[in-house]
Design goal:
Layout (H helix, E strand, L loop, with lengths): L1 H13 L3 E11 L4 E6 L3 E8 L2 E5 L2 E5 L3 E5 L4 E6 L5 E10 L4 H7 L4 E3 L4 H15 L5 H18 L5 H4 L3 H15 L7 H7 L4 H12 L3 H19 L4 H7 L4 H12 L3 H20 L6 H8 L13
Antiparallel strand pairs: 1-8, 2-7, 3-6, 3-8, 4-5, 4-7, 6-9
């Protein structure tokens, strides 16, 4: 069950587009309480001092220094100070296509995670505050970068509670479909066939699959085929025509699809990966590691661009 949880979350993160709409540091006096309201955007809150509470959909959570909270958009929430000392907090509000509250609830993401001892979190929030107050052209990129890193820190601390969602019917059905796809990549998989495995009508299956996985079923199948192709190119010397057959494609179609996806042909991809691996092996043998400059040189090939012109 952890596998489908990771796939659902990863696919949504691939398509994530978030923008900070407000960033600030605030101090709340003892006795402070904010009444229930529904935020139009997501909120990320980091407590740097004091104890308090956050209430989401009627459920209250205690907060303390080091607590990082992700509050979904459109959900009734409130907060307040619990102790006799002020609560100091960094917070940002952001718009994002993370999905609705129902999706976040299905993923069982916690409201709060403990980030004690992570000084980089304060740095990220300060970067978002500075970028929000900066009117330079690049400020939006800097705020996005800091927001994405802060979200990554939050998600890395989330513990997957398999027992909490392991019996949810939709996860069980999609889990079976994903396993079937992985085991039958060489076959001509059809929408009707996949929907039948999930015991769902094809129209409903398409909607459900796209909502949770992030892509229509057949597009996801092709993405899994390309991931298998990459792995085989990296780890084996199998002829490309045989690799194409192993994922149910003709050689010319694989080359075209692969180039659309990566910008280079399968042959070029294998060569670039081999050059990087050889360079990394030489560096490891010398007790070092490959530098970014060396990696870039390997990706550039023999003095040219990693992109191809006219190669099939």
């Amino acid at each position: 069950m952890e596998r489908i949880y990771r796939i659902i979350l990863q696919q949504h993160l691939r398509r994530l587009n978030a923008e900070v709409t407000l960033a600030a540091w605030s101090s709340f006096a003892p006795g402070f309480s904010l009444g229930r309201s529904r935020s139009h955007g997501f909120r990320l809150v980091y407590i740097s001092k004091g104890t308090g509470w956050i209430e989401v959909n009627g459920k209250r959570y205690g907060t303390r220094p080091g607590c990082l909270s992700l509050l979904p958009a459109g959900i009734e929430q409130s907060c307040g100070v619990a102790g006799t000392e002020p609560v100091e907090a960094y917070w940002v509000q952001f718009d994002a296509n993370l999905g609705d509250a129902e999706l976040i609830d299905m993923l069982k993401l916690p409201v709060c995670v403990d980030m004690s001892g992570r000084s980089d979190i304060i740095r990220l929030f300060e970067a978002m505050v500075d970028s929000y107050n900066d009117r330079s052209i690049t400020s939006v990129l800097r705020s996005k970068a800091a927001l994405y890193e802060a979200l990554a820190c939050f998600l890395e601390q989330c513990q997957v509670d398999e027992g909490a969602f392991g019996n949810i019917d939709v996860y069980v059905k999609l889990g079976k479909v994903l396993d079937y796809i992985d085991q039958h990549l060489a076959e001509n998989l059809t929408l009707e066939e996949l929907a039948k495995i999930a015991y769902l009508h094809p129209n409903y299956f398409i909607s459900l699959f796209k909502n949770l996985i992030g892509y229509p079923p057949i597009q996801y199948v092709n993405m899994q085929r390309l991931e298998k192709v990459k792995k085989l190119l990296e780890e084996t010397d199998i002829h490309i025509a045989d690799i194409a057959a192993s994922v149910g494609m003709r050689n010319h179609y694989l080359s075209r699809l692969f180039k659309q996806h990566t910008g280079i042909s399968p042959t070029r991809y294998r060569k670039l990966y081999g050059e990087r691996k050889a360079m990394a092996d030489r560096a490891a043998a010398k007790g070092g590691r490959i530098s970014e400059v060396q990696a870039a040189a390997a990706d550039a090939g023999t003095g040219g661009s990693g992109y191809e012109q006219g190669e099939d």
